[in-house]
Amino acid sequence: MSDDTIRLVTIGRILRRRWRLLAILAVVGALVGYGTSLLVPPRYTASASVLLPGQWEERELLTQAEIATSSVVVDRVAATLRWTGVSGSELRDRVSAKAADGNIIKISGTADTPERAQRLSDRVAEQFVTFAAQITGDGDGTDPDAAAGPETLRQKVMQTNRRITELANAADPGQTVESVQARTELAKLRAALQDAVKKLEQAESATEKAGMLVMGPAARPAGEAPPTRTQLIVGGALLFFLLSVIGHLAAARGNRRLHTEGEIAAALGSALLGTVDVPGERPAHGPKGRGARAWIRRLLGVDTRWETPAPQTSGDEASRRIRYRRVCARLRDQLPPPRRLLVVVPDGDEIARRAAGQLVAEAESDPSPSSSSRGDPVLRVAEVSVSHPMVPDRDTESGALVVLSAGSWTAQELAGIAEACADGRHEVVGIIVAGTVRARPTRPAGHPPDNATPALAVRGHATGGSV
C-alpha cells in the first residue's frame, strides 16, 4: 500500500473482505466491556438545586459553586452522614457543583445506591446554605456597623433627619460665627445620613444574597450514572472494531511487498517478458490448507488478502491466451535452440502456479504458423519455497523463467529466489507477472472445448517432471 491518503474505498474494502474478523473482534470487545461492568460497581447520581436570590455576577456564581464542594462543606456532610469507611476526602470525589441559568447552583452527588445518592446531594445542599449564611452573618465580625442590622440603620437615619430639621430651624441665616457653625454641623449630619443610607443598601443586598434557598429535595435517580453496563458493552465493541480497522491500515502501510513490474524486475535482476491474466476464482484448499489453524483462517476470512484491488473484467479466453502466446514468441526470439527453461514459481503463489500451467500448455500447443514444434520452448515447472529457496540443478535447461504475482513478495524474498537460481547454475532469462481478472461468461459459440486442457497441464507440470 502506498503512502497516499487513505480513501473511503480502502475502508470499504476492509469491511467487505474482513467482515467476519471484524465482527468476531467486535464481539470480543463487547465481552470485555461486559466483564469490565462486572468489576466496576454501579453508580447513581442525584442532583439538588440551590437558588441564590438577588443580583449575582458570573464570577460570584462560580465562587459559590467552588464553596459548595469545598473541604469545609464536604467534611461537615461526612460528619452528618457517618457512612462506614467513607471519609470527607472520598466524598469530595463524588460531589460536584456547577452554576446554572437563573442564579441556581446545581449540586450532584454520586453513590453506590439511589438512596445514598439522594441523601448525599441533599446534605451537601443543606450544609452549603448553612455555611454561606455563616460567612455573611454575624459571626464574621468584620464590620460592627453593618452587623447592627438594617433596623438599627433605619433608626439612625430617622434620628439624623430630625436633627437636621432642628438645626435648620434654629440656624441664623446671617453671617455670624454661630450660623456658620450651625450650617457646618448640618453638612456633617447630611454626610452621615448619606453614609448610613449606603450601609443600609449594602446590608439589604447582603441579606438578600445570604437568603439562599434549597429548591426541594433531590429526585431519586432511576438509572445508573454513566458509564452504564450497556455503554461499556457498546464502547468495548466499538473500540475493538476501530482498533482492528486501524491495525489493518497500519499493516498495509508497513507492507513491503512489491507491486510494480519495475520493482519486481529490479529485485530479480532480469527483464520483464510480459504480464498475463488468470481468471479469478476461490483457490482450492489442498493438503496444506487442512488442520484447525487453516480452518480458523478460512472462517475468519484471513486466508485471502484484502489490500489487493478488485479484479478487472477481462476479455474472452482467446484474448487471454494471446498474452501467453506472445510470451512464448518472445522466448523463441530470445533463446537459441534448444529452448528448455525451468519455470520457477514461488511456493504458495496460487495465481503464479496457474499462470505457469497455462504457459506450459500454450507452449505445447502453439498453433502459430510461423513456429514449429521444435522451435517452441520446452518448459518444466518447479515450485520453490520462499523461506528456504532451493532450485534443481541445471540439466538441459537454457535458463530459468520466474513467474509470480504482483504484490505477493518482498524484495528480499525475490532476491533469495534469484540467488537460489544462481546456485543451481540457472540464469534468470525473464520474468512474467500474473494478475487475476474477472472472466466473462463463456458464449455458446466460443472456442473448442480444448480450453480445459491447460488446467490438466497445470497439475501435471506442477510436480516438476520434464516436458
From TrEMBL:
Main location: membrane
Family per record: Belongs to the CpsC/CapA family.
Domain of life: Bacteria
Name by which UniProt lists this protein: Polysaccharide biosynthesis protein
Residue ranges of every copy of the Polysaccharide chain length determinant N-terminal domain listed in the record: 4-65
Claim: Metal-binding is one of the keywords in the record: no
Topological type in the membrane: Multi-pass membrane protein
Protein keywords: Cell membrane, Coiled coil, Membrane, Transmembrane, Transmembrane helix
